[in-house]
Write a structure and sequence with these properties.
single chain, about 120 residues, alpha+beta, four-stranded antiparallel sheet, two-stranded antiparallel sheet, 6 strands, about 25% helix, globular
């Protein structure tokens, strides 16, 4: 039986963040405090390609703070791709934790199909 699922992603898992960074060939995320244009943020710092300021992930609340000045200081598609990879990696981690087999296939439209084979 097949199911289609839509997910609104909150980012809580530092291991899935690290896996997403590795997958996208980004530098390893580091916990710290950084200056954004309009303030200071603390959390996991993820430096996206071409972004002036890092994205800052608060794993306690699942939120991401960033300042890309409506795309002038960083292409939004890089953050979107990171969130997609985080969701894929988190789903794979959770599936495997439960003893399921997880396979992945990239689709032509840029989406990713994950299949979870539930073991009974």
């Amino acid at each position: 039986m097949s199911h289609i699922v839509q997910i609104q992603t909150k980012i809580y898992d530092q291991f899935a963040v690290a896996a997403a960074c590795h997958r996208l060939a980004l530098t390893e995320p580091a916990h710290g405090t950084t200056k954004l244009f309009s303030g200071v943020a603390t959390g996991l710092l993820v430096q996206l390609p071409g972004w002036r300021y890092p994205a800052v992930i608060d794993t306690a609340t699942g939120t991401v703070q960033f300042d890309n000045y409506a795309g002038r200081w960083g292409d939004q598609s890089h953050l979107d791709k990171f969130v997609q990879m985080y969701a894929v990696e988190k789903a794979k981690i959770e599936g495997r934790k439960r003893g399921h087999t997880v396979t992945e296939r990239a689709l032509h439209d840029g989406s990713i199909l994950l299949q979870v084979q539930v073991r009974s």
